[in-house]
Amino acid sequence: MAVLLYYPLVNPPAEVLHQSLLYWDGIASVVPADPQIRASAVSQRLKELEQEQLYTPVTLDQYALPSFHEAAGAALVEREQDGAILSEELRRLAAGPRPPRPTSPPDAFLYLTKVHRWLEERLLGLRLATRCPDDRWRLAVAREVQELIVGVAVREIAQDSKLPLFPYTDCEDVQRRALRPAARSRALAWEMELGRLLPVPAPDTPLADILAFREQYGEERVRLMRAIHRMLGDLRRDYEHPADVLAQLRVELEQALADYRSAARDSRMTWVHRSVTVTVALAAAAGGAIVLPDLSWFLGVVGGYALNAATREIRPVLQRHGSHDFSYLHRIHTDLS
What residues pair up with 327 in beta bridges, in sequence order? Predict the structure, then answer.
């Protein structure tokens, strides 16, 4: 199992929180490093889950978010490779015909305790941010800039963390900016719809009921998510034979899904199916005609639902410490029922 890393905000919507409690070991989100600011930013519901070890606040200064380092007695100096992708994207935005300047009033902010000093200086230098005269702890930025930075950051955090973190958002624009391939940096990925396999309780379901289900049917939910992640991991490695991967795991997936459906029926909760798309970066050696971008593959049928995969190009992560590079998009308003 693993931990869902929600972004771009601190507090997830109820449906994403429910998803994290049913199919993951818990949920994490990026928070300001300053304890006082963090205390006001994190909801009471997440604080209670933190006490139960089901929520993990993550700060950027816990990780070596690559980009710039401060040389002794010198200004910020860009390293040859570290941070090239984010730096390139910021320069591209600033040099465009309509650069995303902060508006008045601002439509987005970056907490200075949530980002590194190099990033603050770079944003100000490119005129992509302005200081807030009434709040020294925040920078005013355009929403596009905020979403790009947070999206790139969470993928790097997921790779650098000792926890098995998986980026997860409910905003399609945010994920698009996080994965958008840069001019000089592209990688191939599978994209799959998993929503039919991962039902969630209706949004108005009491949190206590979901926690009770999590406890009572822990074996069923863990078995289902492990089977799905095993399939995704095998697809990442055996990218030239995607249908064979599903064929080898179909029995395990079918049994896990049947057991989970039985548990859901016994719970007497109302369940819905939302669109949940996962993007799986392929192994670095992937290439050739078999995995060209924009191809679609029929993998097979599981639980009465057809599973398909499509190839796409994405921005690669800079750090390869982790064995996975999965990103999830949860479309709250897309009902698959």
Answer: 279
